């Protein structure tokens, strides 16, 4: 039986073009990009080109891109970097952020910062008016993700960006799940800091970047060399950065067709479940085409995941970081405070490049067979 991977929001396979771009970078480019000799200059050229490609893809300037080890580090750098460099002691965020943001702001809270956590509306969206109402004179940072990794719900970040135009607070958004799904233009979105990761867009793991608008104060988190304009010390991962650049180019070239495909996959997947008379609800409204979070009536998440795995369908219970633990999802708990069963019977399915209409339909049929077996 063919394995069917529906867990692309956790991570994606590395694209063959990315591998092909990284191999010569490994074989031929071994200089340290900070060295001034020709070997170093060759490595520096890769960094410069990648920075240019990525900046232009986001509508940003080259100086506004900082390479990091991934989305987690980019989120941490934004949150700690801005708060340390500024006076205010109040931060606004949401209760549905990825742990890379949530645990970072909780650590600020332990240091004496005042944190406002905004809960989502039942559809999973954050109401921008609640952000406006929470603003104070000493609000230094607002952090609201663009796409939620568990439900796929697209947040109204543009509206929040507009509200913040008249306020001193800096606006950070975790953009990890939007890259490759929508065209991102940081200037149009009025975002000051935005975090991204390579492995969600068919790039390598362990590489990502933070967009930081010119003029936004940012303290470095690492002590060491003067890399990344003194904002992120440490020798850059040249080969992974080459891979990241290739992945960004790929998504820019094929993005619209890909997303059209994902939209088809999602409706085919849900239609097949309905046809097979599976009893379910979709968690969240206005989700991106690549992610669907489903609550299976009367089921238990661990039994479902184990049985899906036996049927060779890979999915996940929300965030990969908490998969394997029995903790209920903090995102679904915030969305459905009066329906606790949703936190224990919900599964996230996420589509990607190697899915086809055939394997998506086949996956839905296998899932339906599991549900029928378990309800007997
Ligand atoms: C929304 C979101 N933010 C941050 C991260 C962390 O990114 P990374 O795995 O590159 O550290 C993830 C990964 O699961 C994510 O989905």
TrEMBL record:
It comes from the Bacteria. The keyword Transport does not apply. One of its GO terms (molecular function) is metal ion binding. Its EC number is 2.8.1.7. Keywords: Iron, Iron-sulfur, Metal-binding, Pyridoxal phosphate, Transferase. Residues 4-361 form the Aminotransferase class V domain. Transmembrane segments: none annotated. It catalyses: (sulfur carrier)-H + L-cysteine = (sulfur carrier)-SH + L-alanine. Its cofactor is pyridoxal 5'-phosphate. The keyword Transferase applies. Belongs to the class-V pyridoxal-phosphate-dependent aminotransferase family. NifS/IscS subfamily. This is cysteine desulfurase. It comes from Salimicrobium halophilum.
């Amino acid at each position: 039986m063919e394995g069917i991977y529906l867990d692309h929001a956790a991570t994606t396979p590395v694209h063959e073009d990315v591998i092909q771009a990284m191999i010569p970078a490994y074989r031929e480019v071994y200089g340290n990009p900070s060295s001034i000799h020709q070997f170093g200059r060759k490595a520096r050229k890769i960094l410069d080109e990648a920075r240019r490609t990525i900046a232009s893809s986001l509508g940003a300037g080259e100086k506004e891109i900082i390479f990091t080890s991934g989305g987690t580090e980019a989120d941490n750098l934004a949150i700690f970097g801005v708060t340390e460099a500024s006076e205010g002691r109040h931060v606004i965020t949401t209760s549905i952020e990825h742990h890379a943001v949530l645990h970072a702001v909780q650590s600020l809270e332990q240091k004496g910062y005042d944190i406002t956590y905004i809960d989502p509306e039942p559809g999973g969206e954050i109401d921008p008016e609640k952000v406006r109402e929470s603003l104070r004179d000493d609000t230094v940072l607002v952090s609201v993700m663009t796409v939620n990794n568990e439900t796929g719900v697209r947040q109204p970040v543009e509206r929040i960006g507009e509200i913040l135009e008249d306020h001193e607070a800096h606006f950070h958004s975790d953009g990890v799940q939007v890259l490759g799904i929508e065209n991102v233009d940081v200037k149009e979105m009025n975002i000051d800091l935005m975090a991204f990761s390579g492995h969600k867009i068919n790039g390598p793991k362990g590489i990502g970047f933070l967009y930081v608008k010119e003029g936004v104060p940012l303290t470095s988190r690492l002590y060491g060399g003067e890399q990344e304009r003194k904002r992120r010390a440490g020798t850059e991962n040249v080969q992974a950065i080459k891979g990241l650049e290739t992945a960004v180019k790929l998504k820019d070239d094929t993005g619209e067709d890909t997303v059209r495909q994902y939209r088809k996959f999602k409706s085919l997947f849900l239609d097949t479940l309905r046809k097979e008379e599976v009893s379910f609800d979709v968690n969240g409204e206005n989700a991106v085409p690549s992610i669907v979070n489903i609550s299976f009536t009367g089921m238990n998440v661990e039994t479902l995941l184990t049985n899906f795995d036996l049927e060779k369908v890979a999915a996940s219970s929300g965030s990969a970081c908490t998969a394997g633990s029995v903790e209920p999802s903090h995102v679904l708990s915030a969305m459905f405070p009066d329906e606790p069963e949703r936190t224990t019977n919900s599964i996230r399915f996420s589509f990607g490049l190697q899915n086809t209409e055939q394997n998506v339909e086949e996956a839905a049929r296998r899932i339906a067979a599991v549900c029928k077996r378990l309800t007997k």
